[in-house]
UniProtKB/TrEMBL annotation:
One matching Pfam family: DDE_5
Descriptive protein name: Mobile element protein
Stored InterPro entries: IS701-like (IPR039365), IS701-like_DDE_dom (IPR038721), RNaseH-like_sf (IPR012337)
Domain of life of the source: Bacteria
Domain Transposase IS701-like DDE: 1-142
Family matches, as SUPFAM superfamilies: Ribonuclease H-like
Length: 304
């Protein structure tokens, strides 16, 4: 994990010194921090998995391209004003050089009168039959359900200067109940063969991340730190992370007894078989040792 320090901090040496920030810490964007953490995890031999992020990361073309270069499929949020080429769009051929012209081959496209469309408008113009109601999870008030539409599109970033259209990928649009128009949009490089239900389920895994973050604050006090030093914060955050990990592991091994409300809703928790009281926590793998450091791992600062 890493702590994000804004530029006003990293450009103030006296402030950094008073807080005990190490001298080698410099400003990094959240995108660079995320890519650095990914590189570290992949360097440890972690198997590439599906990457999920909100529009704060997903709207950055370079960030998405870097994920693809590293072999990571993704589902990332984008803003409604992101421009796209609609389904069925075929990129025009690059015009050949005129006879007798020298120099390198042309690399710019000419789109003529073709114009991309914003994700928001593309979704709003879909016929009613394009929208499907999907159950995607269980909550305190029962099943979570919304309307979704999925389209195969191409990103139109840089079309005005002749850049090539992006590779075909998914655009997942969500139109929540009681909203006048679609409000959430995601891009995904998952295979074209994936079902809508599966695409929605994987997209909504971010809900688990948000819930974990709320639990870190509410259950183990991540946001209760009131100190002013780098070391103090990292000690606090590390202990919170360990406590939350323990609670998550215990919950997985020993699920709580189903309540009457769970049973009434027919939730997955109510139907789960009770865990054996004799199950033990898994031991560390051979060669693994508990380690500590002066500062501990630095946490990511999630800002939505």
């Amino acid at each position: 994990m890493r702590l994000y320090l804004p530029a006003e901090w990293t450009s103030a040496p006296e402030r950094l010194h008073k807080a005990g920030v190490p001298e080698d810490v410099s400003f990094e964007t959240k995108r660079d921090i995320a890519l650095g953490l990914l590189a570290r995890a992949l360097g440890w031999g972690v198997r590439p998995r599906l990457f999920l992020a909100d529009s704060g990361y997903g709207n950055e073309v370079e960030f998405r391209e870097e994920l693809t270069r590293r072999g990571l499929p993704y589902i990332v949020g984008i803003r409604g004003d992101s421009v796209l080429w609609p389904p069925g769009f075929a990129p025009p051929p690059i015009p050949p050089k005129s006879e007798g012209m020298s120099g390198p081959a042309r690399t710019r496209y000419r789109y003529g009168d073709a114009k991309p469309i914003a994700a928001q408008k593309l979704a709003a113009d879909l016929p009613p039959t394009a929208w499907k109601s999907v159950n995607w999870g269980e909550g305190a008030k029962g099943r979570k359900r919304s309307r979704f539409a999925a389209l195969r599109i191409r990103i139109a970033h840089g079309y005005s200067v002749g850049l090539a259209p992006g590779d075909e990928q998914w655009l997942l649009c969500e139109w929540p109940k009681n909203e006048k128009q679609p409000t959430k949009f995601h891009l995904s490089t998952l295979p074209a063969s994936i079902s809508l239900k599966q695409l929605v389920r994987l997209t909504k895994l971010r809900w688990r991340v948000e819930r974990d973050y709320q639990e870190l604050k509410a259950e183990v006090g991540l946001d209760h730190f009131e100190g002013r030093t780098w070391r103090g914060f990292h000690h606090h955050a590390t202990l919170c992370a360990v406590a939350h990990g323990f609670l998550a592991l215990r919950r997985a091994l020993f699920p709580p007894e189903p309540s009457a409300l769970d049973a009434a809703h027919g939730s997955a928790r109510a139907s789960a078989a009770p865990a054996s009281a004799n199950r033990h926590l898994p031991a560390l793998q051979q060669g693994h040792q508990l380690q500590s450091s002066a500062c501990g791992p630095a946490p990511v600062r999630w800002t939505g």
